[in-house]
């Protein structure tokens, strides 16, 4: 395992551990409504960082599936360019917030997390598909 990968994994672990005992750090985030509007307009890449068993319950059509447990190994797949905005979404917002913070520490400036997550998306009855129905590079 590379040194940078070890640092990244350690960073995510530390961030998750400290979140429970530290005041909220202001991180770039968007409301669920804004996320959906930007995503449907093709303005952002949305990455669903829930784990495969969670993806099985349904995902937004066309999202990239990149489980949090694989982010460190697959970080090169996440665009880092400022002109390619990325939204991270999980079930609520806790994991996507933590990964946003960890990626910012790695120099990413184009990452925001989605408040509410896929649980709120589903509660609102917004369109969802099963992962096997995704097409192209979004499939994982």
- Spatial ordering of strands, largest sheet: 1-5-4-2-3
Weakly predicted, low-confidence segments: 135-140
- For the record, what is the CATH homologous superfamily label? Rhodanese-like domain
Structural domain tally: 1
Q: What is the share of helical residues?
A: 40-55%
Radius of gyration: 14 Å
Anisotropy-based shape: globular
> Could you give the distance between the termini?
22 Å
**CATH fold naming:** Oxidized Rhodanese, domain 1
Biggest sheet features: 5 strands, parallel
Q: Averaging pLDDT over every residue, what do you get?
A: 85
What is the H/E order? HEHEHEHEHEH
Total beta-strand segments? 5
Q: Per CATH, which architecture?
A: 3-Layer(aba) Sandwich
Residues in β-strands, percent: 5-15%
Structural class, judged by helices and strands? alpha/beta
CATH class: Alpha Beta
Short description:
The chain is α/β, with parallel strands linked by helices. It contains 6 helices and 5 strands, in the order H-E-H-E-H-E-H-E-H-E-H.
Describe the fold and architecture:
With 140 residues, this protein is α/β, with parallel strands linked by helices. It has a single domain, classed as 3-Layer(aba) Sandwich (Oxidized Rhodanese, domain 1). The protein has helices spanning 3-19, 32-40, 52-55, 68-74, 94-105, 117-123; strands at 29-30, 45-48, 64-65, 86-89, 111-114. A five-stranded parallel beta sheet has the order 1-5-4-2-3. The chain is globular. The model is unreliable at 135-140 (pLDDT under 50).
């Amino acid at each position: 395992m590379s040194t940078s990968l070890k640092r990244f994994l350690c960073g995510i672990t530390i961030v998750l551990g400290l979140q429970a005992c530290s005041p909220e750090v202001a991180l770039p985030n968007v409301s669920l409504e804004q996320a959906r509007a930007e995503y449907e307009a093709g303005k952002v890449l949305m990455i669903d960082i829930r784990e495969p068993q969670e993806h099985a319950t349904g995902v937004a059509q066309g999202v990239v599936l990149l489980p949090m447990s694989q982010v460190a190994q697959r970080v090169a797949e996440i665009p880092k360019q400022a002109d390619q905005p990325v939204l991270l979404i999980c079930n609520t917002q806790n994991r996507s917030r933590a990964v946003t913070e960890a990626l910012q520490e790695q120099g990413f400036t184009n990452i925001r997390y989605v408040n509410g997550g896929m649980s709120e998306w589903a509660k609102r009855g917004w369109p969802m598909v099963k992962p096997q129905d995704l097409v192209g590079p979004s499939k994982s």
